TrEMBL record:
Protein name: ATP-binding cassette domain-containing protein
Native organism: Leucobacter rhizosphaerae
Stretches that traverse the bilayer: 12-28, 34-54, 61-80, 92-112, 119-140, 160-178, 244-271, 283-304
Main location class: membrane
Pfam families with a match to the protein in the record: ABC_tran, BCA_ABC_TP_C, BPD_transp_2
CDD domains reported for this sequence: TM_PBP1_LivM_like
Domain named ABC transporter: residues: 358-585
Cellular localization per UniProt: Cell membrane
Amino acid sequence: MLLANRRLRPVIPIVVAVVALAVGWGLSVRLSGYYVFLGISAITAIIAVIGLGVVTGSAGIIALSQLTFAAIGAWVVAWMSVNEIPGGFPVWLLAGGVAGGLAGILIGLPALRLRGVNLAVVTLGFAAAFDVMLVQIQFPGSVDGIAVERPESFSSDREYFFFAVIVLVICALLISWLQRSRIGSSWKAVAFSERGTAAVGQSVSAAKLSAFAVSAALGGISGGLLAGQVQLPFASSFTPLQSLALYILAVMSGAYLIDMAVFGGILWVLVPELLKKWGVPQDWGFVIFGLLGIQALTSGSNLGEGIRSLFRRRSKRRAEASAAVGALGASDVGTSVLDVFAVPEAAEPVPADAPPVLEVSGLGVQFGALKALDDVSLRVRPRSIMGLIGPNGAGKSTFVDAVSGFLPQHTGTVILDGQDITRQAPAARARHGLRRTFQQDRVPPQLTVEAYVRFVTRKRIDIDELTDALTFLGCPPPDERLSNVDVGTRRLIEVAAAVLSGPKVLILDEPAAGLSHEEHLLFGQRLTRIPSRFDTAIVIIEHDLDLVRTVCTEITVLDFGRVLAQGPQQEVLENPAVIAAYMGDAEISS
Ligand SMILES: Nc1ncnc2c1ncn2[C@@H]1O[C@H](COP(=O)(O)OP(=O)(O)OP(=O)(O)O)[C@@H](O)[C@H]1O
């Protein structure tokens, strides 16, 4: 059943596309002329809203200049038409999209440093400035009344409507494919946590800029299509106020879901039409969109997610009911979850004199007057598990941040597998094989378990291998949505994904937080098998000493940012200085 679903999944967008084309053709033949015109307007709006869905919905960036990119696309199409550039309308439209995309990258550059309101001001300022310029320079041909030439075989309104449907279907297919690709995952990851994104080797700048570029390119295509529709485009179709209203519509509908972008685009045309019919000034449409936007922003959700979670809850209830019936008749197979792991053990044991895979020397981090880390050095042997322990505030998380590149101002050196990575950014360190997990939840809830694991591993990975690793670590199946999973389990999935990426060193910052004591111990048993299976060394920060005893061969104790003790597990835990300064006799004796 699951396999059948997996095989069917890539086919679904194609089937939807074919149906959309058939419906589009039917409407182009049957609708009256007026509705055909409105239909083209709706399609141009839908394409612009799909673009907004990428940048705001998926990547979580505020962008208030979508219709400026549309104006750029329309301008390029008009200019190419007036100058009779070879290739015809489809080529001009593509050029409009490319021009919009390039402008998007230009505007996206400040987005790398700005967030929230500041970014909103920049994008709205750009929209206002371009609007003023557009009024001055006008669209090519508009003063002389030279109409934009439509594609030869789609010159009538009805034919052009069908052409617009084809363009929409291509755009929607492309975005649906991108959303499911690594790029799409990077958009969702960056929206949730930039640190989490960088820690898996993904450039945060590339994720943000690609979202801006794709979104603006769709804006450009939407504008180019509008130029072909009206044939004499005017600046009044692309004002900053309209960009703002379109943004609100995208947020309210949940435009990263393509069906909701379609709904949003239809609403964009329908609301003013209804107001006109009822004799209400059409500008009231902006008020309605504004109210809907306030509702969406204050509720923290959107229409698309609301509808989907309703369906998900229903199907979950149904699945639970049928699982309960199935469980009554099932016999206990008795297979230990530890036996499920199909990945073979690494062949060779590590020689005692093997060089360390991670060597940290003289690490120092200063926060103002506070020395959070002072001359910390440690060596991690290949395929070993080192525990990094110490009381609250000892500097453990600071150590992880510094070693993984998130505190570049540190002193000292970090050598990974013989290579000096001290000056490398976090994403580069991750790509070189230094992976880490976080104390806080950094797993983007918009993804499925499988999409997240594939995003983190950065390589092709067999579904059986993926499923085995998830089962082994007690994670939910690949199809499960991360938004349905509790935080403790999400952190196990974070560990499973990091392990599957095959790092040289994996640093786990309190990976079992949120699990019960028994689950802690089971997690420990599983963890001890990871280094040999995956040829990985692990550094684990943990407060649960039972877990530390279960998994760690060596221990480093930090206290007030300095190394208090270091060495084999038993030796360190019996060290009087450790007992006196850190844990107290009662707690440490087993
Ligand atoms: N960004 C920061 N600015 C200023 N001080 C900081 C910053 N981050 C950490 N510190 C301080 O540095 C010291 C070490 O903190 P750190 O979080 O590394 O300790 P920890 O051992 O991980 O503690 P815990 O077990 O509670 O997570 C603490 O005194 C903390 O208050």
